[in-house]
Write a structure and sequence with these properties.
The protein contains 1 helix and 5 strands; from the N terminus they run H-E-E-E-E-E. By secondary structure, the protein is mainly beta. A 5-stranded mixed beta barrel has the order 1-2-3-5-4. Keywords: Signal.
């Protein structure tokens, strides 16, 4: 009985974490920040990402995205079906212009 309770507890702990962003996958969105909508939301134009959207509003928690700069963005979780769509940043990398 104790073993099954412990096993259930371990399964619940490992499955309830936030979804990890897979570094092996190409970015969902890749392109410049078009506009800053609020302190934590920006509008990004998708130029080369895997998602089939032209623009998306992304919510960032810790990062500060600059208007005009290009980024590779991996979305975490669900994307809200709105115009334009909305998603939360899971991972972000600035694209360096050389």
């Amino acid at each position: 009985m104790r073993l099954s309770t412990l096993l259930l507890f371990v399964i619940l702990l490992t499955s309830c974490g936030s979804p990890a962003v897979n570094d092996d996958l190409p970015p969902d969105i890749q392109g410049p920040v078009v506009d800053r909508l609020s302190s934590n939301q920006v509008l990004v134009r998708n130029e080369e990402g895997q998602m089939k959207v032209q623009e998306i509003i992304v919510t960032v928690e810790k990062e500060s995205l600059e208007k005009g700069r290009e980024y590779s963005i991996w979305i975490e979780g669900e994307i809200l079906d709105s115009q334009p769509p909305k998603g939360k940043v899971g991972k972000i990398e600035q694209i360096h212009d050389d």
